[in-house]
Amino acid sequence: MDGATTALAEMEAAGSPEQKQLQDQQAATVDFDQKNVLPIYEVLASADQQRIAANAGDVFHFATKARERMFRVEAILKVGRYRFDAARQADQIAAPRFLRRLSDDPDPAVRAAAGAAAGLTVEEYRMIH
């Protein structure tokens, strides 16, 4: 969407109300991404041990309750990595059970993510980090 509004704004006459509206929409989209999407993604993608320790509960919550499918799938994949890198042993122990529970989710993307996360080997994990 970011690129689309920029391209559409460039197609409008310079200084036109339509161009201004598209530029405003582009700025709002970038602002939304910076404030709402990026902070969540940074937690889900992080390999930093302090961030992993501080956000494990949030990741488990996103894996079950996120309304955005992409965030839910990313959180599930992160739970798979918790088997190897969670700061607390309880999170490492809970991860496989948690993933088994998700293996019969009605959403096929969630089931696939749970299967991939549960099947992650230590060698594959090491290639990620």
Query: In what range is the share of β-strand residues?
Result: under 5%
Distance between the termini: 30 Å
The gross shape turns out to be elongated
Rg value: 19 Å
User: Which structural category fits the helices and strands?
Assistant: mainly alpha
Number of helices: 7
Order of helices and strands: HHHHHHH
Structure write-up:
With 129 residues, this protein is mainly α. The protein folds into 2 domains: 1-45; 49-129, no CATH class. Helix content is 82%, strand content 0%. The protein is built from 7 helices and no strands. The chain has helices at residues 2-11, 17-45, 49-65, 69-85, 89-102, 108-119, 122-128. The longest helix has 29 residues, at 17-45. It starts with a helix and ends with a helix.
Please render the helix and strand layout as text.
Blueprint: H1 2-11, H2 17-45, H3 49-65, H4 69-85, H5 89-102, H6 108-119, H7 122-128
Descriptive keywords:
single chain, mainly alpha, 129 residues, 2 domains
Structure at a glance:
With 129 residues, the chain is mainly α. The chain has helices at 2-11, 17-45, 49-65, 69-85, 89-102, 108-119, 122-128. It is 82% helix and 0% strand.
